[in-house]
Amino acid sequence: MSQLRVYQTEAIVIKRVKLGEADRILTLYTPEKGKIKAVAKGTRRPISKLGGHVELLTHSQLLIARGRNLDIITQAQTINCFMPIKNDLNRLSQGLYCAELVDVFAAERIESAETFHLLRDTLERLANSKTGAIALRYFELQLLNYLGYRPQLQSCTLCNRAIQSDINYFSSCQGGIICSQCIHEEIASRRLSLNALKVLRLWQNCDYATAIKININEELAKELEDVLRDYLKYLLEKQIKSTAFLDMLKVKLVGIDN
Amino acid sequence: MEFTNTAEPIARLIEEFNKLPGIGPKSAQRLTYYLLQSPPERVEMLAEAIKGIKQSLRLCSVCLNITDSETCIICRDNNRDRSRICVVEEPADILPLERTRKYRGLYHVLHGVISPGDGVGPDDIKLNELMRRIQNGGVTEVILATNPNLEGDATAMYIQRLIASSQIQITRLARGLPFGGDLEYADDVTLSRALEGRQSF
Lengths: 258, 201
Ligand SMILES: [Zn+2]
Ligand SMILES: [Zn+2]
Description:
The structure holds two protein chains of two kinds.
Chain A: E1 6-19, E2 23-30, E3 34-40, E4 59-65, E5 71-80, H1 83-86, H2 89-105, H3 113-128, H4 133-146, E6 168-171, E7 176-179, E8 190-192, H5 194-205, H6 208-211, H7 218-236, H8 243-252
Parallel strand pairs in A: 3-5
Antiparallel strand pairs in A: 1-2, 1-4, 2-3, 4-5, 6-7, 6-8
Helix pairs in contact in A: 2-3, 2-4, 2-8, 3-4, 4-7
Chain B: H1 8-18, H2 25-37, H3 40-55, E1 58-59, E2 66-67, H4 73-76, E3 81-88, H5 94-99, E4 105-109, H6 127-135, E5 141-144, H7 150-163, E6 169-172, H8 188-196
Parallel strand pairs in B: 3-4, 3-5, 5-6
Antiparallel strand pairs in B: 1-2
Helix pairs in contact in B: 1-2
The structure holds zinc ion (2 copies).
One zinc ion (ZN) is lined by residues 60, 62-63, 65, 71-72, 74-75 of chain B.
């Protein structure tokens, strides 16, 4: 069977590395093909037809030619450049974090339209939200759903009994909750507050409009962030690179803009 | 590429040339055979020149540009305006700016750019050195001339935050349509910034 030499696809640019003098290899996330790689020629020169249409965190319509080794982008037109993300350091660091998560979790050429839509919608949400904290947590939980790492939050991962007590633990290696009867020192786990458990359960199953209706104080926000980050790190078996910058912005430059 | 029928030193030089930017296998062969036929003194001079760039060069103690002495030729020039610092990513970025003959201030070379997805943060580039220069006083304007792409913008925004509370004027090179470019191909970010930065004509 012969394949078409060119194909069209929507894509969000989630990573790019330099190639030779003026080219780049892009990692793209597409609705129909999942994660793919393609070369964008000449994009590091000021006069480039592709230019900003294939910049990181840009949603574009692409025409791609199949190559012997790597496919080559021949045309690009921006659908959404998420301008507020590009113009604000906090949002930019959050957008890059989402892109990195998709890149490190998604295998190449495994289709997941939900993941594409989640990434697109999350970038849109980050562009429009002030702090982005809920958008990020919601993104992490949904991404875990789509990729098959949905944490078990309804019943104890060891005894399978429904969660009853107010005191529970989250274990990354168990992939969910451990009840107070099953907990023992040999399992790496962290105490999870009842509020955090309730919020995580809700976010796992609700739409985004419902998710943002909840009021979350700073302490709870921090707990949710820590639990999910630990779990993601455990699954990846490594640090997520862009979190360092995300944290740095919070600590060093807090309060300078909103 | 394999050079199984070529003497080892020739094959090695062809391979080395081939690694250089803009030099393909054909050009690499031509250069190698040209040198093979050149007088020994010429080859010696070239070899010395190549070695020289690594042996005698270091970073300017002020702006971190590449130099062969304590400070670079720009920082040594007493006619330059010492109250302005133009921040660039790489030493190679200074040359095109100098060619314009429009700028008479000093530079600061970051030797990199903030790239969170690659794990390159503010501490991995020469940002502390810039902050020290600014804290030493006498600076009235910092011109951010990092590349007009995501990492260049991130770096510029980060520096802007670091020095926003001071009295120093912070400017960014105007972003707009490239000369010789075509409006039709301009992306949304470039176009909207070009519109924002439009000037009376
Ligand atoms: Zn249990
Ligand atoms: Zn200097």
